[in-house]
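We modelled the chain as a single entity of 194 amino acids. Its sequence is:
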Amino acid sequence: MNQDTINWLTVHLLPFEAEFRLRLRRVCTSAADVDDVIQEVYCKVMQMDAVTHVKDPRGYFVQIAKNLITDRLRRDAVVNIDIMANLGELDVQDDMPGPERIVFGRAELRWVMGLIGKLPDRCREVFRARRIYGLSLKETADSLGVTEKAVEYESAKGMELISEMMKRQGAHDIPPSMKVRKINKAGKTNVSDR
């Protein structure tokens, strides 16, 4: 047995097992069948040479279970229509953002980083330390060799300058994902900045 695979199972399948069992109860005909499917999923994963290729462990477990159940149904002489109908209930919702959200997110990040890049040097350093790296007021002051009062001033100045740049550039330069759609009293959609 591969200890890395055992550790991986402990981290990724054990916390999900109770929810996984509940989903399987809707598909399997008995509690024993649920136990069998869970056991087979563990065995399938334990037989693998490596698990590093698995990017979505929960989805991977569900897919193994679906394949096992489908194989069992093929072997049975009679197919249970209820089980086939409930097989889709095993699916796990994908929490990953869709491709369009990723593209919009990257556009937003480039736009904001461009605004930050236009700040004066010391203001930009303070802004990055506080807002991007999450340093405290004291940590920022110590790392940049300035007073905490100077950090407060530069932070406020940075926010004010970025706000002004956003107003000056106008809505035509703001990425579409940063625009908010508002419905006016006449029921028409207006697009505005956040």
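As a brief sanity check on the tokenised model: The first helix runs from residue 3 to 12. The longest strand covers residues 179-183.
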